[in-house]
Fold IQ motif containing with AAA domain 1.
Amino acid sequence: MYNKMWHQTQEALGALLDKEPQKMVEPQRNQVFIFQTLATFYIKYVQIFRNLENVYDQIVHPQKRILIRKVLDGVMGRVLELKNEMVELELTEFHYFDDILQDLKLAPQQLDIPIPKYFLKEKLEVIKGREKILAQILADSGIDTSEMKFPVKSMPFDQAVKLIQIAERARQGRLRALFMKQIYLQEYRAKQSKTLGKKVTDAWAAALCIQKVWRRFHQCKKTEKLREEEMIFLGMNPPPLFNEVSATVIQAEKVDRLRNEVQMKHEEDYREALVTIKNDLKLIEGLDIKENLQDQIRHWFIECRNLTGTFPDYPDIEEGGSAIIFSNKTIQQEEDEKWKMSPSLFLPAMKEGCNAYKEIWMNKDESWNFSQDFDPELIKEEKRKELESEIRVQVDELMRQELKNLKLAVDREREHPAKVGKKKKKGKKGKKKEKKTKKDKDLTADRTIESLYKELVEEGLLIQALKVNLSDYIGEYSYLGTTLRQVSIEPMPSLLDVRQLITLYGIWPLGSAAVHEKAPLVKSLLLAGPSGVGKKMLVHAICTETGANLFNLSSSNIAGKYPGKNGLQMMLHAVFKVARQLQPSVVWIEDTEKTFYKKVPNAEKTNEPKRLKRHLPQILKLLKPDDRILIVGTTRRPFDAELQSFCRVYQKIILVPRPDYASRYVLWKQIIERNGGVLTSALNVSCLAKVTDGFTQGHIVKVVKAVLTDQRIRRQIHKPLTAVEFITAITSMDPVYKEEEESFKNWYAKTPLGKKRALAITGGSTEKAKDKGKRKE
Ligand SMILES: Nc1ncnc2c1ncn2[C@@H]1O[C@H](COP(=O)(O)OP(=O)(O)OP(=O)(O)O)[C@@H](O)[C@H]1O
């Protein structure tokens, strides 16, 4: 099945790649048309990515997986490039595709961007090992992690005694009440039996009474059942076991796990085969290859002498040795390759992958390989080439000597003195380069990474990320985006739009080195939004999904640590050295507006919140494409920061909105269920979602936890949950008021991208096109 899926996806990718150059290179003036083209390509690449990711996770053939991985990274990079183009074109981070989805007959869920499972699977051992070390260091240094999750408030001694007394008296009271009840019942039963014993019972009347009660009860149950069945038949209620995981799904998950085991075994076999087959080849064919090469080279000596009258010069090792003589490349060809600049950095890799697929796999007969183990012939082919180049190095040495001897014997020529000089010069150049690279001073050259790691953990700068997946971030799609834009209303981005941006800008580049190196680089990300919209949760999710280390450089966290100028330098050096060496890493700055305060409030002056301000731009400059480090800032009050320097540091700004009706609806439902609540028809979720407009996810979580106590959960069978219980609890909280939301929007309109967009909307599209043209140049 996965093979079939792979072939289909490769074909779709091939077709898409053929279309790319025609559509993308043609100059276009119509903005809408350009966006439609970009968006269509984007959506199609996302579909291909989803399929390929699935295939890569499940296919067990090791050699196919290598090729799929290459194409997969290429597709990811291309999706990011297209996203970047769309951002530049529309001057907004959020795009709405609902009309294109309709044309392509796709559901919004199909646009969801999954996180490749290989990000974590391939690093499982490393991540587990690191978690263990971190836990060990925390335990050794007496820092209790549970305290970080659930902060404990201290309490005066007499108050604590009083609390324990109250609880104990209540317990004793309950016990006594139970005891008294039992005594009372005993007495009551004894009295009843006495009075009943005196009466002469009428057996018929008693039977009739029992029948009456039983029939009523039976009919009630029957009617209830019939009504329920009718509702299910009409589609008004979900069928029983609707939310249960079906046996088929469980079986499928089991098969998935089994496939992963087979995958690992095949991978191991393949690695072993790479070594054994090469050794075998060396034994069997090594001598032949050597003789063949020698014959070829000798033949070349003679041919050259016949043509030119002298023996040729032997090509240097740097030029590739004798391999260059027999390569088919002409100079003309090389020039062609240089000149053809591709518009994307990922297209060549994808094309290469597609060509390899067509050459090797498309029409390959694999009837012999039912178990999908490695193909030895392919390994042989590859290893033969490797072996040949290895042997060629030895042969070159021999033949160089032989040529020298030949020249001496036949032409009586000595080695050209000029050449020796040239070689020496090259050596000098190399030294110069070495000196230059030594410029970066390592402040902790004498320390091991382990000791730095330990120090940072003990200082509380390197913290344990909470285990939350991005899929735990609940939300719904925005279904009316395009429609609203058409009538000039800027739609509020939905929570799932935010989630996608986090995947694209945070998780993909951190998870894949190939993508990070070539895709449009995002070094810093700002999450701005009211309290409780899940900013922290998103930061932790980025770390969980990529296995990244989490550094906390919030001003409150670094206050008083590493004092002085030198101390600060040392701290930053240590943080970024560890972050670089144990990448991927996330450097989180909570309440980041404090670092850029326009005016530091008196109460916070002792904390020196602006310590990092001058250093952050320098740090960003030093981050190279191969450093998988992301700086994430979160803020509740971006308007307190000085705009210019703030926006210079944060390359991408994401406004995290409060949930809209659709999102609130799923949030209530899922958060209640996650906390042990049962949804019944008595609980009107729609009403709950409607009246809680303005409240954030944080509020919802808090209220659900407060209402769903252990006791309430136990009582649900007799008294189902109702919306009123939640509404009563939430009324004591402050929602996000319109004014606060407006101030976020106004602030965003002043950021570089916001300004450009406002200008484009009011000033027409011509300037936008010009601007884009300039940037492209
Ligand atoms: N989309 C979501 N789905 C499920 N739970 C969520 C979602 N968003 C937030 N939460 C939960 O809401 C609570 C508050 O979130 P979080 O602390 O991340 O918000 P925040 O924006 O960082 O708040 P603050 O600015 O006050 O620090 C957390 O318990 C988090 O798990």
